[in-house]
Amino acid sequence: MKVDPRQVEDAARELYVRALKVLPPDIKEGFGRLVASETDATAQGVLATMVTNIRVAESTDNLLCQDTGIPIYNVVIGRGVEIDGVALMDAIRRGCERATREHSLRSSVVHPITRKNEHTSCGPGVPPIHIDFSDEADQLRIEMVPKGSGSENNSWLRMAVPAEGIGAIKLFVVDCVLEAGGKTCPPTIVGVGVGGTSDLCMSLAKRAATRPLGSACADPEGAKLERELSAAVNDLGVGPQGLGGDSTAFAVHVEIAATHITMNPVAVNMQCHSARRASATITPQGVAYGF
């Protein structure tokens, strides 16, 4: 299957807008579960306000949050797909720029030193474009995640040592959630990376934070850690918007990688309650949009 870069450009543009305006179904279902289980009266009121905000934003075709975030594109290329790699990345960047200009989106991207804003949601190294491959034949999948600063500012890495054991990982995650407090606009998805190198570990935490609710770590020990940490985090009492309650996080997600015998990195990256994402799958039949 040969993919026209113009298809990619149009999809990249459409995905940015969709991600900012429509919340994925799994997150809405997550809100439903938290509303049903929350015991604190103030927290119940905060959750109700969040749910109303989502409903009003979607019904009026407005943004779910004013923060358009750092635009992140994850691309998975299936077997038999033909596309020039440079053309692919250029097309995604053009689509990102078009979304910002054509839909009057606030560009949240600036130069890190001069703080100059080009008003394109692009800049050096941005949007980050991650490319992977799959066994799926004749399809190219693009996922778009707008990552807001409220969640991204709450990112941590610790190069733990093996002698500290699993307890060090759990304590680090709990401490990070407490330090974040209400700054991440909870309820959150807490992404945890364990293992790898320092950069891989942070990447794993980001992948975990942006996974759909209801998914589980493929590794049995990682999945067990997810369950234990999810319970521990929601016992902290941080609550929605940091105002107290049971609903500190939708879930804790864990992703793991093998690591060196003398180290055990652990990273945390959080996603706010407006856990936005959108996807497009390009096949010979056309483009199908989803989450």
From TrEMBL:
Keywords: 4Fe-4S, Iron, Iron-sulfur, Lyase, Metal-binding
UniProt entry tagged with the keyword Metal-binding: yes
Superkingdom to which the source organism belongs: Bacteria
Domain Fe-S hydro-lyase tartrate dehydratase alpha-type catalytic: 10-280
Pfam families listed in its UniProt record: Fumerase
Molecular function GO terms recorded: 4 iron, 4 sulfur cluster binding; L(+)-tartrate dehydratase activity; metal ion binding
Family note: Belongs to the class-I fumarase family.
Protein name: L(+)-tartrate dehydratase subunit alpha
Gene assigned in the entry: ttdA
